[in-house]
Amino acid sequence: MMQRMGFLILLLMTGVINAENSHPPYLIAHGMAEKNVKPMLAKIDIELFSYRGSSDDALQDVNNATDKIIKILADSDVNEDALEASNFLKETIRDRDDNHNKLATKGYEVKRNIVIRLSELSNYQNMMVQLVAIDNVAEIDTEFDVNNKQALTHELMLTAGKDARHRAESMAEALGVELAGVQAVAEDQSFEIYDIRYRISPKTSYRRIPPKSFSKMLVPSHIVLHQEVNVVFRIKP
């Protein structure tokens, strides 16, 4: 009985080895490219928030803050179309007992999100100083971008592909093998080859370089556009 079981295990192991050897040998190379670019656009995300005992007072706080933002845009010669405002979010805050049962109302929270899209940055610093100073601005953040992203991404993809080939050729030389050609290309974070799933770091990202001084709201000198690509090369048998 033990001999029979050993024979079955040997057959199963042989099948796995044959299945694995049925696939051509391959090599995966990860290519990267970066470029420093001057920011041309900005997306400013603002969260307005008020907590008051009266919902009317909380709503008025958020409305007043919205009016101030609109005035800052007008004074900065920014078209009102650059502003996107969400609906109001309201939540009733109540006391709770030891069993977490809701008791009497303590107050009301009112929130609203506003997005400002700037197509040029000449007034950015002055606007940000004023926006940050507005009461009831709970959070504010800026993402910088470029208006020729598609062309830059194409350029970086070519460079990343060349980098992947260079890395693959270096690895092949170190291992004493030759590349036969490209089996697959992926720019996704995860991809599958012969039922084996691989996961790589994110393919594209913008990194904002912080200004040297944090005392002023400055436009960064550049942002970094980063492109990655994963290439599967066949190895000559």
Give a quick precis of the structure.
By secondary structure, this protein is an alpha+beta fold. Helices cover 32% and strands 40% of the residues.
SSE topology:
Layout: H1 2-21, E1 26-37, E2 41-52, H2 55-75, E3 83-85, E4 89-96, E5 102-118, H3 124-132, E6 137-145, H4 149-175, E7 179-186, E8 190-193, E9 196-199, E10 204-208, E11 223-235
Antiparallel strand pairs: 1-11, 2-5, 2-6, 3-5, 4-5, 7-11, 8-9, 10-11
Polypeptide structure, described:
The protein is of the alpha+beta class. Helices cover 32% and strands 40% of the residues. It has 2 domains: 102 residues, Protein of unknown function (DUF541), domain 1 (Translation Initiation Factor IF3, 2-Layer Sandwich); 105 residues, Protein of unknown function (DUF541), domain 2 (Alpha-Beta Plaits, 2-Layer Sandwich), CATH 3.30.70. Strands 2, 3, 4, 5 and 6 form a 5-stranded antiparallel beta sheet that branches. Strands 1, 7, 10 and 11 form a 4-stranded antiparallel beta sheet that branches. A two-stranded antiparallel sheet has the order 8-9. It is elongated, with a radius of gyration of 29 Å. The N terminus is likely disordered.
